[in-house]
Amino acid sequence: MGGEEWTWDGLPSTDPEGGFWAPRALSVAEIQEIIQDWAKAAERAVRAGVDTIEIHAAHGYLIGEFLSPVTNRRTDQYGGSFENRIRILLEIITAVRKVIPETMPLFVRLSATEWLENTEVGKRYGCWDVESSIRLAKLLPPLGVDLLDVSSGGNHPDQIINPFGAGDYQTRIAAQIRSELQAEGLYMFIGAVGLITEAEQARDILEAGAATSLSKAIEDVDADIEKEAEAILNMTEKRNGNDPQADVVFVARQFMREPEWVLKVAWKLGIDVAWPVQSLKVRFRDA
Ligand SMILES: Cc1cc2nc3c(=O)[nH]c(=O)nc-3n(C[C@H](O)[C@H](O)[C@H](O)COP(=O)(O)O)c2cc1C
Fold it and tell me: 252 CA to middle of ligand 1, Å?
């Protein structure tokens, strides 16, 4: 199925203004095929020489759509209950883990909340929230997941917080998931991502006793979302302020602004790293 007759606005798929194919539910056989496709893609990646595989279950892509009760309206074993909505992800993880080397790190990227808690659609259908992520996270270490990459949002246009304008909330959620896992004696690396731009900030996330202050987080965000900011802060407040917030930080846009970011961070934090030979003459130095 699919093709021109399936566009949801009647425009041809070549029309720059529209022409998207109408979504339809996958059959169970197609889901099984997709799970195997994930495993085949992982095998190809291993053959191509990658060091790490990350399964993308965030940002409204297919797996994320299955996780959320807002976008998953299935009535079979892949929809409805929490256990059914996470089934495809667990099956993909299992299929991928089986075909990659035992020593290869396996990451999962998750939208830890889809930010629909305070929306009409979220109230009507329920939504994927931090509590769901904690519940899911506890199931991942036994399946061989080594790291949970904690992002957020991107599944629905009604989401209230823009993930790219959300201060350090994603890091705070990462910290909450990390402490909940540790409280149950489970261990999996937790990655923090989003608006990490400074050396000291990256260090503070990873080191004990150096949590970013609450008021700074609120100051940094748009006034419009201050209320939501407070709600999230309350939601994440119970963690122990002396714990590291994450085991790993991921940085995206800062590398677009400053491709030499790693070298600058190392210099600022007094860490000796190897510089590319061609850059030795421009090494950062204390004045
Ligand atoms: C140009 C650009 C492309 C991105 N593409 C992806 C993507 O394909 N998959 C993904 O999970 N995140 C993607 N992201 C999001 C980043 O991985 C990251 O989560 C986000 O930018 C927040 O981190 P930052 O504040 O360090 O940029 C993209 C971000 C940018 C700026």
Answer: 6
Measured CA distances, 161 to 154, 241, 266 (Å) = 10, 24, 32
Rg (CA), the chain: 21
Secondary structure (DSSP) of 239-275:
S-TTS-S-SEEE--HHHHH-TTHHHHHHHHTT---PP
Residue ID of nearest Cα to ligand 1 atom 23: 194
**Quick check: 210 and 203 in contact, CB under 8 A?**
yes
% of the chain beyond a pLDDT of 90? 73
The pLDDT value given to residue 27: 96
Please give the distance, rounded to the nearest whole angstrom, from the Cα atom of residue 103 to the centre of ligand 1: 27
User: Distance from the CA of 287 to the center of ligand 1, in angstroms?
Assistant: 34
Residue 61 a catalytic site member: yes
Which phi and psi (to 5°) does residue 26 adopt? -75, 145
Beta strand ranges found along the chain (DSSP E): 53-57, 106-111, 147-151, 189-193, 248-250
Query: Which residue has the least CA distance to atom 21 on ligand 1?
Result: 252
Low pLDDT (below 70) residues in the chain: 1-3, 162-167, 208-242
* Global pTM value: 0.84
pLDDT at 51: 98
